[in-house]
Amino acid sequence: MAPMTRDAAMPRADKADVLRKLGADIILDRGADLVGELGEMAVDVVVDNVAGDGFPNMLKVLKRGGRFVSSGAIAGPIVSLDMRDMYLKDLTLIGSTAWDAPVFPNLISYIERGEIRPLLAKVFPLDQIAEAQQEFLKKSHIGNFVLVPATPETALV
Predict the structure, then answer these.
(1) Residues of the chain whose pLDDT is less than 70?
(2) Residue 20 has what pLDDT?
(3) In angstroms, rounded to a whole number, what is the distance separating the alpha carbons of residues 60 and 88?
(4) Taking the model in full, what pTM does it have?
(5) What would the 3-class secondary structure string for the chain be?
(6) In degrees, to the nearest 5, what angle opens at C-alpha 47 toward C-alphas 147 and 85?
């Protein structure tokens, strides 16, 4: 029997309904007491792009051998780390800013097979990159923005 998978999210309140519709099992408020809500050593993987004051509890909810992945620190880059949470549980901390060469082709193959579906927030023509950045800074979107370069046909218009 395959292990049960549970997805949890900590969105802004205005994003909770969308994430619930997308299949998140558990929706926690950004300021929730993670250890109180989930328990210590309750999850295998934490993916966090926020950091800040919530970082220490992210490690506390990880199981022994768990993995913490981060590609951002929008709540603050300086965090408190109790080394015992890391070494006593044999945690792996992963910073992610770039992909290894096979990752992108593998990702595309998952999409082509319909195993995953990218979440698209909005499409912008490349010449509207400033508008896309302004929209991104509002932090009200869920999903990715796509910038589309002009084609020879549209470049002549």
Answers:
(1) 1-8, 154-157
(2) 84
(3) 11
(4) 0.73
(5) CCCCCCCEECCCHHHHHHHHHCCCCEECCCCCCHHHHHCCCCEEEEEECCCHHHHHHHHHCEEEEEEEEECCCCCCCCCCCCHHHHHCCCCEEEECCCCCCCHHHHHHHHHHCCCCCCCEEEEEEHHHHHHHHHHHHCCCCCCEEEEECCCHHHHCC
(6) 155
